[in-house]
Amino acid sequence: MTAEERRQSIRMGLALPMRVQGFEADGSTWEEDTTTDDISQGGCSFSVSRRVELGQVLLLFIPLPKRLRQYDPNETSYRVYALVRRLLHRPQRPRVGVMFFGKSPPQGFEEEPAARFLLPSDLSPLADPDEPAPDAPFTPPHPGATAPERRSSVRFHRFVDFTLQQVDEWGTVLQEELTVADNVAKGGAHVLTSLEFMKGDVVLLRQAGGDFDTRAEVRDVITGEDGLRRLHLKFLDRQAPDGLLRPL
Fold this sequence. Notes:
The protein has no helices and twelve strands. It is mostly beta strands. The strands form two sheets. Strands 1-2-3-6-5-4 form a six-stranded antiparallel beta barrel. A hairpin with a 5-residue loop joins strand 11 and strand 12. It folds into two domains: 17-117, Pnp Oxidase, Chain A; 160-244, Thrombin, subunit H.
C-alpha cells in the first residue's frame, strides 16, 4: 500500500453471485440476482435492471469471504444492509455502488423503508438542531439564567462511549476509533479524538452498547486546556435520545 492510499481495505475485482432485495413505499419488496463487479470490507458495486436511487436502502445476500466480513463469519451467506452511494447509468443495466451499513438497517427504516438516507454532499445541510428558530423567543434552561444561551437544547456534561468512523463513498473505513463524548446535547456532542479529522468531515457515530447512531458533521476541532483534542459534532440524521441527556 502506497502512502497515497488512504483506505484501510482496498476494493478487489471479485465476481461473487449475490441477491439484492429492494423496498417500496407501500411495504412491498423486490429481489434480483446479480454478480459483484468489485468488493471490499466496506462496500461493493454491481449491476441491476431495477431502478434504484441515491441513498436507497438495499438488503444484500453475498457469499462473502470471511476476511471481508464484519460479523457472522461462519454463515454461508453474508446478510448486510447497504446504502446506494453511486449510480452509473448505462443503456442496459445500471451499475450501482453501495456502502455496507450493517446487520441492522438505519434508524427510521422500519417506518419508511423507501426513504433515502443521504450524506450532506448529496443535499442541502439540514437545519442546525443547536440553533434556535429565527425570531424565536429565548427560554432560559433553568430559573435565574441571565447570560444569553445560544443553544435551544441544554448541553449536559456526562461521559458516553462511542465508535467513531470516517468512510469514503464506497463505505470503506478511512479512520476508526473507540472514544468518549464528555459533552452531549440533543443536536450534537464534544467527542475526544486522537485522529486527524478536519472541519467539514462527515463521520458515523455509534453508541457503544446502545442503539443511538447517526452521521455527524465536524463543526470544529478544539484542543482544550487539558491538552486533549475534541471534535465539535453536529448530528445530521437524528437528535440524541433523552436517555443520553440525563446528568450523571
